[in-house]
Every structure is written in structure tokens, then in C-alpha cells.
Amino acid sequence: MSRLDHLLRFRLAGRAGLALQRRRAERRIDRARPGAGPGLNPPLRSVARMRELMSLHYLEGRYVSGIRPVAWVTSGAPSEILKALGFFVVYPENHAALCGARRRAQRLCEAAEDAGYSRDICSYARTDIGSVLTGDTPVGRLPPPDLLLCCTNICQTVLYWYRVLADHFGCPLVLVDTPFQYRESPLPHEVAYVRRQLEEMVPIAERVARRSLDEKRFLEVVTLSKQASGLWLEVLERARHRPSPLTAFDAFIHLGPVVDLRGDPRTVAYYRQMLAELDGRIAAGKGAVREERYRVLWDNLPIWYRVGPLSKFLAERGVNIVASTYTHAWGEVAPLMDPRDPLTSMARVCLYAILNRSAGQKLEAMRRMVGEFSIDGVILHSDRSCKPYSLGQIDQRRTLAEELGVPALLLDADHNDPRVFAEEQANTRLEAFVEMMGR
Amino acid sequence: MLGTTALPSRREVIAEARARGQRVAAVLPYHYPRVLLRAHGFHPVEVWGPPRIPRDLGSRHFPAYTCDIVVRATSFLLQGGLDGVDAILVPHTCDALQGMGSVLGDFLRPDPAVLTLYLPRGQRPEDRAFLADELRRLGGALAGLSGVEPDAAAWESAFTAESSADAALASLYQRRSRLAVSDRDFYTVVRAREYLPAEEFVALAGSLPEGDSPAGVPLLLSGIVAEPLELFDHLAAAGARVAADDLACGSRRLYPQVAAGDPHERLADRLLGAPPDPTRGSPIAERAAHLRRRMEESGARGLVVYDVKFCEPELFDVPLLRAHLAGAGYPLLHVEVELGEDLGQQALTRLEAFVETLR
Amino acid sequence: MSRAAAVGIDAGSTTCKLVAIDAAGEVVATRLEPASPRLEEQAAQMLSSLLAKLGAADGLPTVATGYGRRLVRGAARQVTEITCHARGVFRALGHGGTLVDLGGQDSKVIRIAGDGRPLDFAMNDKCAAGTGRFLEHTAGRLGVEVAELGERALHSLMEEPITSTCTVFAESEIISLIARGADLDAIIRGLHRSLVGRIVAMVRSVGLDPPLILSGGVALNRGVQEMIAEATGERVLLPPRPQLMGAYGAALIAAGG
Questions:
Q1: Interatomic CA distance for residues A50 and A65, integer angstroms
Q2: Does domain B4-148 have CATH number 3.20.20.450?
């Protein structure tokens, strides 16, 4: 990719084109007339800006090879170091989710399966491997990595997956291994271990980036990350209001920037914009769902290929999924980030990720959220692809339903593979669940 | 056939240990420090499944896509199979065992204490330092249960005993082509290391007769656990023999001997020095090179990857291993089984067909 | 006196097949019956009846293959259907390639080398969705004869995509489609597409070395033939007597060929 391409197609034409698209989308939303009866209100206007930011990111990706070093990174990884070194960061999980949401994941999974990858491995991995093998992607082109950064705080599967990528691309794989937290607080040797891996990561990344890490720039990125993360938490907490101005499905979609573009000043500005819009709705008593009757907590990943239809199905029955444990994960770490001691605090942030904590602690988090968000029922998505999240849900569900008296539904599906989802069966279960909340 | 009826069962070994005043730890797969347990007054007995335990009880706590090792071990626990043990150690081998540690510790809360051990996924200095500290932490937890804090002499004694047993195991593999035992008997003995006291294992390993080893198309058997043992009878009937293995219950635990030093650091070095395997983050090319060497040394003509269903660490590596080994002229067969009563028709037919292609 | 030199028995789960060959490897007699649950008795009975007919009551070299191969008394050896199909097809056609065997309850893909050896294979024997059972079961629900399925699929101008990957869920889906007034033949065509999709995925997992060869009962289905050709871009060859390739190969092995 030439610098000229990067300049013309991305920085000039691309940006202008995407700004135009955003304005059109905003106008469309402004013109939308809300319906009558229970159902979804028109989406948040901010979604147009969010799409613009994410599209800009992927657009740059098409032209960035040879201009900036490229890293592929897991969603829970400490990307701040790489961002401070000027890496263009790709999140294969976000890309896979995008493929899932655009209903392109099945054929990518099939491509991976044709190459011998079992259907019993994570559908994000199959989507990504299928895309890498065929070059097929809805974002035009994903720049190949010069470096892979894998943090095991979300699961061990990412390490198996990234080893496959490392073999395929022949680039260095940096591992940040985070000891699983069976107990409430990390022990000193666990924090020291993660911190040391972060320190060791720096020279490797510097070699690939061909520059040294600038302390000032690093602190700037960490500060921006903390701000974005804190704002995200505020966004999510707005859902405590009745009616809630946003749904968890909105949150799944608006999550993109705080995962992929954390450390970018535009992300901070974006969430401020989103907060302002939410506060406007709250002041007007306007909820994301018309006639919000039931408030529900969603556990585990979203079902990406059904977010729209599920949201609508539930809203028509007066159900607003107001909170999710998944989206909270990127906000609740904000207080832990400390620009005065970036490496140690980043180590703690990595260790604290919800998926790195035991099933009992996840249940505690759910219990807390039931109280804080005035929850009437919990949907636990039994995600076939995600063992760290799904194992323990049977006991969590039973505790919620039997000990806490909160109706709780276990819903079998998969976050990205539509072949695992049986629509009729799922709808029946959801209807029964709504009836249970009504009693 | 070896007088395997002469081998005590795991239940019997547990009873004998308790009669000696020793505590017993049930241990889930698969890398863990025997010496640490022994030094703190525990006799380890491993729990791999077990094969003839139904999933029912365990499946009330784990979804259907959880592997048999976790679900059947949980069933075994819930039906009283682990009554009488003092601790259950769940090493952090993979996401499924991670879940098991959580579900046991947070929800099931059995009488025996549930202990965990995080195994680092690298072989860097920081991994070694972490593992030594993690072993110190586990040692502290064990001491808390047994009241035993080992002194230098206790450590030496534990190291000596377990090192002899490790050497006896390694020797079995070295002498394999001169041992007049069937594959079934060979693995029955290898797997006795999972529960026999070290001294008894040394005696058992030394008692195998030398002579002509069985003939057959030589295979390398990789995977987690070779159950049911009838697998070996079927391979023999199909005209094959296992020339070498890359099994978690076998060669993947041929640890290097490490010279004296701080006991926790010695143990960390041993564990980190194990052969390449997917649960330790080993690069796939390293695994492939290791397997290729083993096949050349042993004369194996094909690789059988024998996996329990839903085993993600194994599944991710198969396509690239297949490609790397095909380049060296070695075919790979991937078979997935459930740890049930019999080896299913499907798995058997695939194994037989594979052997037929190698003749 | 019989010309017969050897016998092959393919004791499958849907049908039991016998083939007798002469010393030159040519077929002299065949038998095919729907499989009885009493497989052992059926195989013994079919074998003794065939031997009597051939004037070889003392017996002939016999090899058994198929799901029930271990239950065949009188077979000197058991050899898997992988090796037997490869051998049978190679002898029948004179070359190797990629064989897709579509049975009632299982399907397999075998890459056959230029000398007739099986190089690699994939089997689908756990799930009905990639097998003849898928079509049979749904045909039953639709009230259509199995023998008609292929032609009706072929001649339908429209196609209703069936998205469920599981036979049981596909049934619910079909019922919804019919309730919505979808055309029966379009549904049948969609079912064929679904089946072929799974078969082609298996072919890709083994690797396609042309030519592409079909065997087994479902191979006779012209809708399946056309759709596989379309999906792979390859011509599809059928050996003579496609259902008998396993038994034929077993007989060849019994004769020492």
C-alpha cells in the first residue's frame, strides 16, 4: 500500500465520504416517527457517529500496510502500549462480530471447516480463520499483522487461535498470560507476573514498530483509555433510569469504540456525545422501549446475527434488556486504571476482566446488577462457543431463580454461528419467560 | 497378558494410603507437581473421566458441549467416588477445567477442599518465576490442610522417590521395542503411575518381561487419554501397534530431571521442561517438529490423534499438524470419541481403514 | 462347475449386498436385500444360497465389509468399506479419483490414488443430515416416493432454501414452509441443495482429485448428481452397479487382487 493511497483514499476521500454517510444517517433517524404500542423507539442518533468512527478505522486498515505497523489483538489485551507506539490495531473478535451481525459469518465458518477446523471450536475463531484463508471480509481488506498480541484473560481459546494465526502469518506472537481468578483479589505474584509480561512486551513491540516507546505518549494513551472507559461506565449506568434510555443491544453495538479505539481522543468525545443524548432522553422521560414493562439482564455474549430481531421481539412484549455483564466488563475496570502507575494498573485491569473471574464472582456481579438496575428477569445465553462464560450458568441460573426469586432463562445459542440457533424453539422459550415475569 | 488383576485399583490404593496415615488428593488432568503433594503429606490419585461413569449427574452442572473428562469426573464426585479423599486438585489446563474448578469451588462445595493450580502458558523467565511462586502458594494451601511443612530432608526424600519413578517410566519408553508386552498391558502399566505410590510403580515397571515386542503397522498415538483400554485390543486386531505416543497421560509427562536447588524452582523447571503440547502454549511448528522426530525415531508410519470430543486445545492444532506432517510424508487420522462403554463403530472403522491405508 | 473364484459381502445398515467374481475379476452373480435386524442370520443365509446357486457349496474365499462385517460367519477377513470401495471403484473404472459414496445411513469420501490405494477419507456416520436418510425421512413426511425425489428436484424451477442443519429441525422448517403455501417441488429441490452442501464440504475436507465418482444408493438420484457437479465444477462419473462397489471390492480382495 502506498502513502499516496493512504493519503488520497483514506485521509481525504474516505473521511469525507464517511462524514457524508453519517449526516445522512442522522437525518434519517431524526425523521423517524415512533410507532404506537409497545415496541422499540427509533435508535440513538449517536449510532451514526459510532458507525463513522468504526468505518474510518476499517477504511484506514485497507491502506495502512507499509505505512504503520499492524497488530492483531485480543479484546481484553493491554493495547495501550501498542497504540502509543503507533501500531494500527485490529481486533479479530470485533471483525468477527461484524461478520456475524452482517450475516456473513456462516460462510466464513464453513470455509474454516472446509480447511479442517472443527465445528466444536469457537465461532469467532472459525469466522476469523475463514476470513484469513479466503480473504473474504465485509470491510474490504484486513491488513495482515506484523505482531500478534494475545491476552488470556478472556479465555484460553484465544491462545490456540492466535497460535494458528502465528503459524499462518509467520509473525511474532506476544503472550500476556493472566492467571485465572478463583479468589476475589489477585495475589502479589499474579500481579507481578502480568506486570513483568507487560514490561517484556515493550522491547518486542518496539522492534517491530522500529521506534522507542515515548513515556509521555504512553501516559497520554492510558489517560485517554481511562477516560473512555469511565465514560462508557457512565453510559451503561444511565440504564438505571426507568424507563431506560438505552437497551443492552444498543450497548453491544456502541461497545465498538471503547474496545477497538480506546486511547483515541475521538472515542472520548464520542461517549460524551452519547451521554448527552441519553441525558436528553432521560429528561424527556423517553425510553429506548415504548411501554417498558419488564427490565431484563443479559448474561454472556450477544447473539450477533439476531440482535435486531430479538430486540424487536422483546420490545413488542414490553421487555427492555437494560444491562449486560458483557458490556459492563469494559467499564468496570476504569477505576483501576492509574496513569501514575500505568504498568501495574494495566496488570490489575487485565486480571480483573469478568471472564477472568470465577463463576461465583460472575454470579455476584449479576446479583449486584439485579439490584442496581431494578431487574425483573435474567436471560443467560448459553453460548456454545464460549466455555468461560457458559460453564457455571446452570448453577447461576438456579441460584437466581430459586434463592433470589428472579426469573432466569437459559437460552441455547451461539454468538456467531447461526446454524446453532433454532428460532422457533428460542421464541417459545422467550415467550414463556416473559409470561413468568408477568406473574 | 500381564496379570493386571494383580494391580490394585485406585480405590484400594486410596484405602492403603489412608491406612498409612497419608492424606489423599484426587487430581484432575494433567500437569501437576507430584513431589509437592508428597512433600506435604498427600498421595496423589488421578481422575481422568473415568470412562464407565455416566454423564447424567455431571450434566446437571455443565452444558452438553462440555467434554467427558470434566462431566464424568463431576458425576464420579457426585456419586461418592471421591469420598474419603482430603483434597481435589484441579490444574488450570484449559477452559473446561477452569469451569470445573469454579463450579466445584463456588457451587458444589464438596467435603474435600478444592484446590487449584494455574499453569503458565509460556516458557519465559517470568513464567518460571510465576510458577515457582504459584507452587509455593499451593504448598501453603496443602500445608494448611495437612499441617505438614516439609524440611530439607522431606523435600529430598520426595524428590528421590518421585525421580526414581519418573526414571522408571522413561525407561519403559526407552525399552519399549524390547518389552514382550501388548500395547494394552504397556499402557496399563504406564497409567499405573497415576495412582500407585512411587516405590510400587518402580517395582512394577521393572517387572515387565523382555523379549519380542508385538508386530504390526507402527503408529504414533497422540491425544489426551487412551480410554477405553479396549482401544489397544482393537488396534492389535487390526494389525497395528503403538510405536510411540504423544498422550497427555503418557509421553507428554516425561519431565526432565532437574538438579538440586530451591524445591519450588526445581519443580517449576520440571513442569516447564515437558515436551511441546497445546495446553502449554507450544507453537504448532514446534509440536509438529517434535512429532516428526518421534515418528522417525520410532518408525511410526502414521499419526492417530485420538481425542475426547469437545477438546479445544487439541482441535485447533489438527489442521496445521496435518499439513506439516503431510509435508514429511506422514498421514494423520483424527478420531473423536466419547468416554463411554465401548469404542463406537465409527471410531473403530476409521482406525481400521487408516491402518489398511498404511500397509 | 462354477466360474466363481471369490465372494464379497457388504453388510450395510440399510442393505446387505453380495458379489461373486471369477478369476479375472468379472462379476458373475450379485444379491441385494434390505438389511434385516438379524444381520448374522441374513448374511449366512444369503451366502449359503448364493454358493449353492454357483455350485460352490464347499465355500469360496470371502471377505466381509460394511457396518455388520464382524457378524458375517464364513468370511475369512473383515476389511473396512473404505478400502473395499476404493478397490471396487478402481477396478470398475480403471483409475483413481475422489469417490463419494452415498449410503442410506452414512456417506463417505475417499481419495483414491492412481494405483487404487485409498489415500485419505472422511466419513459422516453420526448425523443423518448428510446421508440418504435425510432425503428419505423428509420424503416420507411429504408423502413423496423416494425414487421420484431426484427427478422432482431436477425439474423444479423454484427452490426453497432449507436453513436447518439438523434433520429434526429441518422437518419443522418444512412444515412451516408448507403452511405458508410453498411449492412442494421447490422444497424438495432445497432439501437436495442442503444435502449436497454437506457432501461437498466433506469432499473439500479430503481434497478433490478429479475425476469425481459417485457410488451408493443415493448416487442414482439425478438431482444429487447434477447439484454435486454444479457445486464442484466437476463432471460426475458413476461406475456400473454403484450400490455394489463395496461388495465388489471385498470380493477382489478375497481373490487376492
A1: 24
A2: no
Residues of C in contact with B357 (CB under 8 A): 82-83, 117-121
Torsion of CA A71, A74, A78, A79, to 10 degrees: 30
pLDDT bin (cut points 50, 70, 90) of residue C115 is confident
Per cent of chain B over pLDDT 70 is: 98
> How many distinct helices (H) and strands (E) make up chain B?
13, 8
Domain ranges of chain A: 3-438
For A305-314, what is each residue's pLDDT tens digit?
Answer: 999 999 999 9
Q: Mean pLDDT, to the nearest integer, of B203-207? A: 95
Q: Look at residue B1 in the predicted model and tell me its pLDDT.
A: 45
Q: What is the pLDDT of residues C146-156, one digit of tens each?
A: 788 888 888 98
Select the residue of B126, B312, B315 nearest A200 (Cβ to Cβ): B126
| Residue B116, φ and ψ in degrees, nearest 5 | -125, 165
Number of domains making up chain C: 1
The interaxial angle of helices B284-298 and A157-169, nearest 10 deg, is 80
A partners (3+ CB pairs within 8 A) are: B, C
Average pLDDT value over all residues in chain A:
94
Q: Which H or E run contains C99? A: strand C97-102
**Which chain C residue has its CA at the smallest distance from A114's CA?**
C205
d(CA B11, CA B195): 10
The model's pLDDT over A36-91, given as tens digits with 9 standing for 90+, comes to 888 999 999 999 999 999 999 999 999 999 999 999 999 999 999 999 999 999 99
3-state secondary structure of B300: coil
What does the pLDDT average to over A254-279? 94
- The residues spanned by each domain of chain B are 4-148
Q: Look up the pTM and report it.
A: 0.91
Question: Exposure string (b/e) for B227-265, b if CB count within 10 Å is 16 or more?
Answer: bbbebbebbbebebbbbbbbbbbbbbbebeebeeeebbb
Q: What is the greatest pairwise CA distance in chain B?
A: 58
Q: Which of A114, A118, A133, A417 to mutate to test the interface with C (most CBs of C within 10 A)?
A: A114
Residue C66 lies in a domain: yes
Helix, strand, or coil here: A315?
helix
pLDDT of residue C2: 61
Cell digits of residue A133 = 484463508
pLDDT digits (tens, 9 = 90+) for C2-28: 689 999 999 988 899 999 999 999 999
C212 located within any domain: no
**Quick check: C107 and C100 in contact, CB under 8 A?**
yes
Task: Tell me how far apart the alpha carbons of residues B47 and B69 are, in angstroms, rounded to a whole number.
Answer: 9
DSSP secondary structure code for residue A357 in this structure: B
Number of A:B CB contacts under 8 A?
Answer: 155
Query: What is the domain extent for residue C74?
Result: 4-86+244-254
Q: Confirm whether C130 is domain-assigned.
A: no
CATH number at residue C51: 3.30.420.40
